[in-house]
Specification:
This protein is α+β, with helices and mostly antiparallel strands. The chain has a single domain, classed as Arc Repressor Mutant, subunit A, CATH 1.10.10. 62% of the residues lie in helices and 14% in strands. A three-stranded antiparallel sheet has the order 1-3-2. Strand 2 and strand 3 form a beta hairpin. Helix 2 packs across helix 4. 20% of the residues are buried.
Length: 97
């Protein structure tokens, strides 16, 4: 197994910060954190933030791709939750030497 280099970590964290750099995605993540640990289904997120379905889908996919949120199918619904482990790792990276 090949280990990750420090520059790989920096690039990964930079991608996570880039995902959080859009106002809508930051609002989505904050909403999901307020609903932690249960999360919210897409319709609830859309209702609370008044984001169009296609735009919300794009934002959720970007957050999921960066491992900032997780998704679980419940029947016909998708439930999103904030990935607090990944967020803690990101904060640890910020304050580490």
């Amino acid at each position: 197994m090949q280990s990750r280099s420090p520059s790989d970590d920096v690039a990964r964290y930079a991608d996570m910060f880039t995902a959080l750099g859009a106002e809508s995605r930051l609002r989505v993540l904050r909403l999901l954190l307020s609903a932690h640990p249960n999360g919210l289904v897409v319709g609830e997120i859309q209702r609370d933030l008044a984001i169009s379905p296609s735009t919300l889908s794009h934002h959720l996919e970007r957050l999921r791709h960066e491992n900032l949120v997780t998704v679980k199918r419940e029947s016909t619904f998708l439930r999103y939750t904030a990935n607090t482990d990944a967020l803690q790792e990101l904060l640890t990276f910020l304050v580490s030497e």
